[in-house]
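Record 1 of the preview.
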Amino acid sequence: MARILVTGATGNVGRAVVAGLLARGVDFAAAVKAVGSDGSRLPEGTPRIAFDFLVPSTHAPAFAGVESLFLVRPPALANVKRDLAPALHAAKAAGVRHVVFLSLQGVEANPVVPHHELEALIVQLGFRRTFLRPSFFMQNLSTTHCEEIRDRDEIFVPAGTGRTSFVDVRDIGEIAVEALCTDGQANAAYELTGSEAPTYAEVAALLSITLGRPIRYSNPSLPAFVWRKWRREHMPLKFVLVMAALYTVCRLGKAAGVTPELQDLLGRPPRSLQQFMQDFRSVWITPSRP
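->
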């Protein structure tokens, strides 16, 4: 049985955690809805086990023998009591001791988001816990906003002129792996950011330099953002509204906080936006463009 179970293994941070655990050669498994269905989203040789928060029959087999759990809330699951609590109760009953939870920057003062309730539940159930509270992911630019940058040369987010602290998910993954493999980060909460908090206009300017072509920051209004993402690009309305709420935090200047915690934990400076853009440059280039 796996000693470490990784949920959200095919997501941005989850893949970084899986890569780190594979490199260490530790005993772990990636929790997936259907074994064999995730194709190339996980590295070759990744151990997998069937698990679904909404399918209770998968809980006990997945948690059997597990000591540490990397917990990621699926974006579609917002009702903690109904959708997520049963799995955490099953983890406790199975003997899971340590939960490393991918939470949210500022969550301790934001009872509206599900992460706040999840943190409280983890404490209530008596797990040893490590709460990772990262800022905005750099990788949002190479995933969620990749197409608009690659095909339309724009960043289309309603963040105004507010500054936003970014963090590379590869750095978060390193911290998560260390927490999962040791006891040194138990019962702690870390606000993880990079060392920069640029405006989106500055992000677009840096992308322009990296790609050698002008990238503009459109700075749409909230209604224009929701309309385009929902009606024209057919994103689920709930997801679009969550995005709008997050970018409103940026617009209001409340996402600019930079902390030294990531550097202190890593023992090196966090990856910069410039480094991230160089590393991922190819995702914003089509075959017809240099």
